[in-house]
């Protein structure tokens, strides 16, 4: 039962109906049972790990709070984080480290006998581990009281709309919302349904339609340079549609229950710099890394070189979090280098823009920066999408080859589409761009729509539903569901 299924919609409908039917004092039980049932359907073998992680974090939080001195609190916090990261490291990174050590031993002609282990990655462990770590750190710093109600805490740990792929929420935002009685609100219900429908639209009409086309190039033994360029750009569109759709559905489901989750995307492909990109892409992870990695690393540091090192380490952690493979490590470091280079050359670039008088045309200047940022992000995603470091460097070389960008080659590369798939993709891609354009001009497209006539509104809603039913394809899980 994934988000993109009739079964999930029926499951959600039953939960929402029951939620508003029963007294508030019983709702935490309903949400907890629903969350565990949802997780069990997807990955029942790791329910014990989820329960153990929940219990461990719950009691560790209370123990931290009961310590009398700051030094004692810190010891307990570090112990708790170490245990949580040990489980994450064992399941996600053991074979990565093991394979790397084996390769080094082979190169150095050492005897290394630790065998490969068949380890299955528990669903959502990266997401709930980060949420648990932030909970313990916030208690240590006094920003969060240790939760005493085990039921509410367990929902915070496993709330089914955001368990699989975020948004990564903080306890101080999510826990109070579970405790407040949420009265039935038509606006919340309506907004939630629209966000879910829009998530289905982007997932089934953009992301899952592009997925096999992108794979046909990256899985090909001999792709042309132009095909790599086109497939990488398409992968960027696929990844955004996929992940933002997952967030849309999560936010929509929670809103139907009266719960507000944090927005995870703000049109990242319209960012004017890499710094701006990370304030728009996977926002809850970016702010988590800022608050729990970058800021502690910068504590007491004043030299620019020390700040730059903290930036590189933060993006290294981001790369490792995304995947247990060297191509993800390189992807993270590339973004770290982008950030450092961008900051170091900020004044020089401003002078260059002034010298060529680009700054006299603010709109053109802005779109040049958007285009450069998008291409930099696309280049990094060659490493994100490739299945090994060797293939990543081969594909990166093709991406950077000037001949790969010849217009005739790019036009020919579109042969990876069938004519029907190309027409469908272009049509629905334009719809998404219009939606985003309206959002850039207004606070919310949904709010803008609410000011239109009832005929226009329902025509758009029916268009979304009919498009998904007729042209939507599905069968792939969410990309970030694998993290």
What does this structure look like?
Helices cover 74% and strands 0% of the residues. It has 483 residues and is mostly helical. Helix 1 packs antiparallel against helix 2 (24-43) and helix 3 (47-66) runs parallel beside helix 5 (125-140). It is globular, with a radius of gyration of 24 Å. The model has no long low-confidence stretch (mean pLDDT 90).
Task: Outline the secondary-structure elements.
Blueprint: H1 6-21, H2 24-43, H3 47-66, H4 70-108, H5 125-140, H6 150-158, H7 160-163, H8 171-179, H9 186-218, H10 225-256, H11 274-278, H12 283-298, H13 304-322, H14 326-344, H15 346-355, H16 362-385, H17 389-400, H18 407-413, H19 419-441, H20 445-450, H21 454-471
Helix pairs in contact: 1-2, 2-6, 3-4, 3-5, 3-6, 4-5, 6-8, 9-10, 9-19, 9-21, 10-16, 10-17, 10-18, 12-13, 13-14, 14-16, 16-17
One letter per element, helices H and strands E, the order comes to HHHHHHHHHHHHHHHHHHHHH
State the separation between the terminal residues, measured CA to CA: 18 Å
- Spans of at least 5 consecutive residues whose pLDDT stays below 50 are none
- Per DSSP, the total helix count is 21
| Total strand segments | 0
